[in-house]
Amino acid sequence: SRVTRGRRAQLNYLGTDTPKQNISVSGLVNSSLYYGAAYSADTGTDALGSGARDIAARGAVILPGGFVLGGYYETGAQGANAFTRKMIDGLYEQGSLVVNAVYIMATDAGSAGNNNGYSLECAYGLDKDNTVISTARYDAYQKVAADYSELTGNLAYFLEENVKVFAEYWMELAKPSGTLDSRLTAQVDIGL
């Protein structure tokens, strides 16, 4: 389990940490259309990418007024398990405010049903230089056809561009069984 919730919960679960070899292409057309595509393979038992293959594509349209609308598609295998990911997302950015919404549809061979999820995140810079950032995120997702939801609040202060001090509160709002969990974390991140 992750100590902090720096990534959306459903992407934590649906993603993979398996090392991969890949080839990709990406670009920006007329400053308004982003595209990206990748072909990858799990490294398997060697570093040459002899494992399961994946293909992914991403597109996004940058619109006037601080809006971005995008989509993502990936299909492949994780070991012997085939999977498909489809995602639509939107971003709104205006001054110190950033709002991001994501809906992901996931199909996994071997799991009971689909594993879909969505997330809504809002971040706001509390000072004129955006060195103090508050973030709130709601995540709802399925894991093996069971429903989960979480709420995360984070307050960060950037001492320098590469030094961040933050406090984060995370809590489960719903899960199929057991006691709902919560966690308060204080942390310093230093990037070198």
How far the N terminus sits from the C terminus, by CA atoms, comes to 25 Å
DSSP helix fraction? under 10%
Oligomeric state as shown: single chain
The total beta strand count reads 11
Radius of gyration: 18 Å
Q: What is the strand arrangement across the widest sheet?
A: 1-2-3-4-5-6-7-8-9-10-11
| Average of pLDDT | 86
The coarse overall form would be globular
Q: Helix/strand-derived class?
A: mainly beta
Order of helices and strands: HEEEEEEEEEEE
Description of the structure:
The protein has one helix and eleven strands, in the order H-E-E-E-E-E-E-E-E-E-E-E. By secondary structure, the chain is mainly β. Strand 3 (53-63) and strand 4 form a beta hairpin. The protein has one helix spanning 9-14, and strands spanning 20-29, 33-42, 53-63, 67-78, 81-94, 97-108, 117-125, 132-143, 146-160, 163-174, 182-190.
Task: State the main characteristics.
single chain, 192 residues, mainly beta, 11-stranded antiparallel β-sheet, 66% strand, globular
Quick recap:
The protein has 192 residues and is mainly beta. Helix content is 3%, strand content 66%.
Layout of SSEs?
Blueprint lengths: L8 H6 L5 E10 L3 E10 L10 E11 L3 E12 L2 E14 L2 E12 L8 E9 L6 E12 L2 E15 L2 E12 L7 E9 L2
Antiparallel strand pairs: 1-2, 2-3, 3-4, 4-5, 5-6, 6-7, 7-8, 8-9, 9-10, 10-11
